[in-house]
Amino acid sequence: MRLKLTIGTIIIALILGVGINYKTIIDQKQADEARIAQITSEAQVNQQKVEDMQKDIAILRRELAVQRDVYPTSRGGHRVARYVDGAQVTWYNDIGKTASGTTATSGRTVAVDPDVVPLGSEVEIVMPDGRVFRRIAEDTGGAVKGKVFDVYIDASDEELYDLGRTHGVRVFVLDR
Question: Which of 73, 88, 66, 76 is nearest to 134 (CA)?
Fold first, then answer.
C-alpha cells in the first residue's frame, strides 16, 4: 500500500510538474507573440518614416536641380560662393581711391556693402537683359547698402543718368 501511495504521489507530482511547465511554456509563448506584434508594429512605423524621408529627399533633389539651373555652383571656372538675387545696380564715376586702397578702374571696380559681399571678392553681375559684368568688390559707398551694387564706369554724369538704376539683377559672388 505504501508503494501504491508513493507511486501515486510521484505520478501526481509529475502531472503537476508537467502542468506547471506547460503553463510556463504557454505564458512564454504569449509573451513572445506580444513582443513579435510590438516589433512588427514598430517596423511598420519605421517603414512609413523611411518612405516619408525618401519622398522628402526626392523633393529636395528636384529643388536642388532647379536651384542649380537658376543658381549654378560654378560660373566661368569659378565656384559660386553665394548669390544675391533681386539686387539693384547703379553706376558711378568718382575718380579716386577706393575703400580697399586701389584706384577706381572702369571694367574692374564695383562698390558693395561689405556686410553682403566682402571687399576683394570677384562678382559676376547678371543684368535682367542678359548682359554680364565681372568686377572686383573694391569700394563701398554711403548709398551702397544691402543688395545695391554701384559699378564704376568711365563716363560723364549725363551718361550715368541715362544708365539709371537697374532692378532685378542677379549677382554671383565667386571664390577666387
Answer: 76
Beta strands in 5-155 (DSSP E): 74-75, 78-92, 109-111, 122-126, 132-139, 148-152
CA 6, CA 9: separation in Å to the nearest integer? 5
Distances (CA, A) of 117 to 18, 35, 114, 122, 124: 84, 59, 5, 9, 12
Minimal CA–CA distance to 137: which of 109, 164, 158? 109
pTM: 0.58
pLDDT digit string, tens, across residues 2-47: 555 576 666 666 665 666 666 677 778 888 888 888 888 898 988 9
Grid coordinates representing 87 are: 539686387
